[in-house]
Amino acid sequence: MSNQELLALSSVEMRRRIGTKEISPVELLEACLQQIKAINPAVNAVTATCVERARKEAKAAEAAVRRGEDLPLLHGLPAGIKDLEETKDLLTTYGSPLYRDYVPAYDNVMVGRVRAAGAVVVGKTNVPEFGAGSNSRNPVWGATGNPFNPMLNAGGSSGGSAAALATDMLPVCTGSDTGGSLRNPAAFCGVVGFRPSPGMVAVERRAMGWTPISVLGPMGRSVADVCLLYATQIGQHDMDPLSFPLEADAYAEPWPVDLGSLRVAYTEDFGGAPVETGIRQTFRARIKAMKHLFRRLDKVEVDYGGADRCFDVIRAVSFLSRYHDAYTNNRKMLGPNIVANYELGAKLTLADFAWAHGEQTRIFRAFQQIYRDYDLVIGPTVGFTPFPWKQLYISEMNGKKLGTYYHWMATKYFVTLTSNPAVSLPCGLDHRKMPFGLQVIGRFRGDGEVLGAAHAMEQAFKAIPGLARPLPNLNKLRKPVPALKSIVTHPPKLNARRSKGPAPGAL
Prior knowledge:
Layout: H1 3-7, H2 11-19, H3 25-43, E1 46-49, H4 51-66, E2 78-82, E3 102-104, H5 109-116, E4 120-125, E5 137-138, E6 142-143, E7 145-146, E8 149-153, H6 159-166, E9 172-177, H7 183-189, E10 192-195, E11 215-220, H8 223-233, E12 263-266, H9 277-290, E13 296-299, H10 307-322, H11 324-330, H12 336-346, H13 350-368, E14 376-380, E15 396-397, E16 400-401, H14 410-418, E17 422-429, E18 435-441, H15 447-461, H16 474-477, E19 497-499
Parallel strand pairs: 2-4, 2-9, 3-19, 12-13, 12-14
Antiparallel strand pairs: 1-4, 5-6, 7-8, 9-11, 10-11, 10-17, 14-18, 15-16, 17-18
Helix pairs in contact: 3-4, 6-7, 10-12, 10-13, 10-14
């Protein structure tokens, strides 16, 4: 088997073959490292690496297989960790100049669980500064390019993870999501991203522990790959007050779902989110092509209400609590997205905060009413086709100015406000011949059901022209356009500063 054939396997199949001794963890790691060397210059998805440690861990994983030991779910699979997550002895910058030399002395809870499941951490994946925004570019590492066109945006804030998966550089990559940071890059890069229900994956770094707006979660090249990683991430932890006990093994494989029994509702814009004409047309064509798969597929009206203002307030308050010290002491070192969120929060009143939580509750309850008649809600993941990464965000649509730097992500942050679990599923190409993502939203706390439905849809899409997962041209990426690091001021110094505790203000 060639390296390219090996790397094109799903992580589920890689893990199976490691268990049967058909492939070696050492062989797999070296293939990934060669792919990173060849492809990463084109997309700039993988940032800091720990190659020598990874090689030692791969050899240990290989020895465990030879000894016939019981092997955990991710045994021997090379992994990338989003650069918002603390990794022991591996540079963790959060995409910020304030932490360009920060090397934690610990793994955070999620990273520790992924390691304990046998993953071999190879390196970090790129993000926007502190994860703010959906364009994975920052002053430390530069910009991540889209695998289908490196001059376009790969999405964010988990853009590095999505691009690494799409280009077969790494089979396992982690992400996180506030306003769409798992779903947007998955849609832009043609992979699967899953925003879980709050509390499923413990998050000990959330500054406001009782607020469910931000979650950690999995990405993958298929829904089955997502499930494999997800089962290692979930579970209760006493540092997250929203977490609760779970039977993790129950989520390791997609649940069986009969599409023909499902009643499915669809919406083009969730009742008010900005969606460009080309994406609307693409979505309508997809609805027509998949309608026969379901028992029912009906258009529904969604009560969008005050979702924009509600998300503005709740997001700004979290930034206010998280970045007070950084804004007060190092404002000039912060990018425009962080500053904008913080300053919005600083102007809010307690009445604003109370209204936002009340409105979120109303939006949540109104959205759940749909599930009295339907099993799923689907819509476009992103309202816009990928745009140049040099453009920080989309500021207008059809000549009309959008409200904030993240307003173009409203199709995703509306779902964040509801707290329902949501999968971004690859669904062919859009009007610009770029990946199109379909957002599949499950019932409240229906993580297993929505992953099972998304898996069944994924399998059905393979037989429908134009709906299968698109693949980038990797041969073209071996001849990179040398522009992706143009906004880097100077590279970080490795192993310069260590800490036993979390970085102040880290997302």
